[in-house]
UniProtKB/TrEMBL annotation:
It comes from the Bacteria. This is DUF1508 domain-containing protein. Residues 16-53 form the DUF1508 domain. Pfam families: DUF1508. Signal peptide: none annotated. The lineage of its organism: Bacteria, Pseudomonadati, Pseudomonadota, Gammaproteobacteria, Pseudomonadales. It comes from Pseudomonas tohonis. Belongs to the UPF0339 family. Duplicated subfamily.
């Protein structure tokens, strides 16, 4: 398995990035960014922080489980999908730790 960052437009005309598996599944989604450079800086920070367990915050949303990837300044870099089982959330985190640091970036906004 591999992963890639994709930069795309939001419904409001901002940019966002998603980390997708080679099967196209979104395993991390960012906030929106006004500028392209802000978005690429967010990806760079994600790549820097992704390998380290201390930057992942698990959370429950009703009966589902999810997580946030945070920067050292506690800013949310991205959110993971809600899963019905903790084992699936942990599998997403393992994938992000392994592949995000070297993931290629595809810009779908140009």
């Amino acid at each position: 398995m591999e992963a890639r960052f994709e930069i795309s437009w939001t419904a409001t005309g901002d940019r966002q990035f998603q980390l997708k598996t080679d099967g196209g599944e979104v395993i991390l989604q960012s906030e929106s960014y006004k500028t392209f450079s802000g978005c690429t800086n967010g990806i760079a920070s994600c790549k820097d922080h992704a390998p380290y367990e201390r930057f992942y915050v698990r959370c429950k949303r009703g009966t589902s489980e999810g997580f946030h990837l945070r920067a050292a300044n506690n800013r949310v870099l991205g959110r993971g999908p809600c899963r019905r089982a903790a084992v699936l959330t942990e599998a997403d985190i393992v994938t992000i730790k392994k592949f995000a640091p070297s993931a290629e970036i595809q810009d779908k906004t140009r």
